[in-house]
Amino acid sequence: MRIYELLIATLAVRFATAIGFATYKEIREGSDNSKAIAYSPLDRSHALFLYIQIIAGWDHVQIINDFKTLAQNYGSNGVSVIPRVRYGNPDGSVTTEPSDQALILDDVEIWAGVFSEVSDMIQIPVIQAGFLGLWGEWHSGPFCQAQGTDDSSANLDVKQQVVEALQQGSGHKIALRYPRDHQALFPGDRGVTLHNDCIFNGGPDGYDGGTFPAGDRQTWVDYTKHVASGSTYGGEGCNQAGDSTYDWSDWADLCGSDGLVSYINEFQIAYMNPGNPAPFQELFYDESWRDCVDAIQAALQQYS
């Protein structure tokens, strides 16, 4: 009886922590989010890949309430959420963080508290650090001019404060975008993981949209594996970065022996948004390639 109970408990934990495909969704401050926050069944997915777009200087009351409603609606249906907060404009377009450090850190503290508050409503496997840069991707903003020690000490301090405030306020694992920032701020620390917004953009030996700097790719591949493999590491593919060379529309190659499943296993990737890039989304919904999509899902669900 005890062996049986242990097996059930082990399976329950594995089911709770496996992610796999994470369905893209976004909510925006100042917009009508009623459709986005209402529950609708997900296709081959039990997780949301959620962008929360806020406007600098606004009080965030409406979008916080919308997020809490989403958390209740989806969490009660067994769906988890991987959130990232980014800044936008009142017209709905995306922008970088404001130049006011105090304002940013106030926003981080607010949202860390919100993520903590909803923990009894919905599972949050990981929070992507966000807040800085375009799309919250830690590039092109006033406080993220470069990666790692190439950035200023003042900017590195802001980056560290963002991550630590999210950690302490939410109680959840935090994912940084770039391994060089991770090494500069939390060297070797697997308690802070990574996310990758340009998975496989150059195929099995690519640079993943600057994730792995071209001048020393292997060093940062090895570092990424050291701190993030098997530690809720994931993200989405892309084909629009400057170093994008992979043809995502070549499904035979993508599904082949040196394709995406092999790459997932190499890095122990736990989740991916199947909505990006567009050819990957087309593959996801093409029933004639279902076996390939199922294999990708199974590979992702090995890791947590």
Per-chain topology:
Elements: H1 2-17, E1 20-21, E2 23-28, H2 34-37, E3 47-54, H3 61-75, E4 80-87, H4 101-117, E5 127-128, H5 153-170, E6 174-176, H6 179-185, E7 192-199, E8 201-204, H7 217-228, E9 234-237, H8 251-254, H9 260-267, E10 271-273, H10 278-285, H11 290-300
Parallel strand pairs: 1-10, 2-3, 3-4, 5-6, 6-7, 7-9, 9-10
Protein name: DUF4874 domain-containing protein
Domain DUF4874: 65-179
Organism: Monosporascus ibericus
Explain what this protein looks like in three dimensions.
This is DUF4874 domain-containing protein. Residues 65-179 form the DUF4874 domain. InterPro entries: DUF4874 (IPR032379). Residues 1-18 form the signal peptide. By secondary structure, the chain is an alpha/beta fold. It has a single domain (19-300), classed as TIM Barrel, CATH 3.20.20. The protein is built from eleven helices and ten strands. It has helices at residues 2-17, 34-37, 61-75, 101-117, 153-170, 179-185, 217-228, 251-254, 260-267, 278-285, 290-300; strands spanning 20-21, 23-28, 47-54, 80-87, 127-128, 174-176, 192-199, 201-204, 234-237, 271-273. The chain has a six-stranded parallel β-sheet. Helix 6 links the parallel strand 6 and strand 7. Helix 4 (101-117) packs parallel to helix 5 and helix 9 packs parallel to helix 11 (290-300). The two termini are 28 Å apart.
Compose a concise summary of this entry.
With 304 residues, the protein is of the alpha/beta class. The protein contains 11 helices and 10 strands. The protein has helices at 2-17, 34-37, 61-75, 101-117, 153-170, 179-185, 217-228, 251-254, 260-267, 278-285, 290-300; strands at residues 20-21, 23-28, 47-54, 80-87, 127-128, 174-176, 192-199, 201-204, 234-237, 271-273.
